[in-house]
Amino acid sequence: MIPSNSKEKAFLCAQAALDHKAIDLVILSIQNLSSFTDYFVICSGNSDRQVQAIASHIEEKLAGEGLSPLGIEGKREGRWILLDYGEVVVHIFYHPVREFYDIERLWSDAPQVELPKQRRPRRAGS
């Protein structure tokens, strides 16, 4: 089922990331703060290989819904991968890199969006 709006697309990206054990996942609503996208989906992996696997799974899951990214950055290195789906931008970090860049602080005015209760994100170390 193709997502009918940008929030559903963000949830689909988040669910795909969680399928591959992404940690510390947050969704930020930046539609009132930005003109280039509506949502950031931000998550981490414990290794560059896990970061790459999370990104690949998101791509596969969304391709199955007929959605292709407008752009992909950083996939080869696996330290910080950005998947641009237009109204949703996914940031997948190797955990120490995420701490360094602290992207949530840069967008601290953006409200977090709760995932539906059936699937909540894991935290680092759990």
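Next protein, fold it too.
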Amino acid sequence: MTNVRAERSGQVGSLIIDNPDRRNAMTRQMYADVPQAVEQLVAGGDLRCVILRGAGNEAFCAGSDVSEFKTQRTANSAADYAGIEHRAFGAIAELSTPTIAAIHGPCMGGGVALATSCDLRIAADDATFSVPPGKLGVGYAVDGAQNLARLIGVPQAKMLLLTACVIDAAEALRIGLVNQVVAKDHLDEHVHDLTQRISQLAPLTLTAAKLALDHRPEAHDAVRACFASADYREGIASFEQKRRPSFEGR
């Protein structure tokens, strides 16, 4: 049984990091399982939003599982390990649907890289963040470092990476690492409400927006496709008729 689970509830999918005995630390196999879990969600059709969360009540993700580094992350295998990480982060980042990281408790190292692969990050007020590879002599994932810098700027990314400091949810919000902070008891409810709001919007429009914001070359074609879609006609008709639109993603 994999420790990365894919679940669907209607149009909303969940990717669950399920290793609570180790504060949801990511093993090599768990990183390898992420792309397949994403494919499972997409295969269900009509996917409007994906939530990334950690199982249990203690942590979002304590980073990569250090207990396996001696055997799984050696000088000879480091490149292979990095490739597996890269595919995991990319599988989340390249989803055409909006993605939300629902973060509670510690979010460390590889957990930060997973969270920054998502479009939005909602943190509980007990969340803490750190990027501590400097304490282990580990080379941090290049795309993880670059995503972090794009999100919060190079100076703040350097502060996290070069000092291995721990910041709380309030500081993460201040520097732009997370979009919102809510009370821990309300995290699930808040994220659920956010997914429902997103699910009511036009999927092709949201995909085009993601592509544009990520500077993807196919963004221009995606924008043009919106104007040729049935959803565009539905959006105009619903506006004229003063009713809520019903978008189908085509």
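About the second fold: The chain has two domains: 4-197, 202-241.
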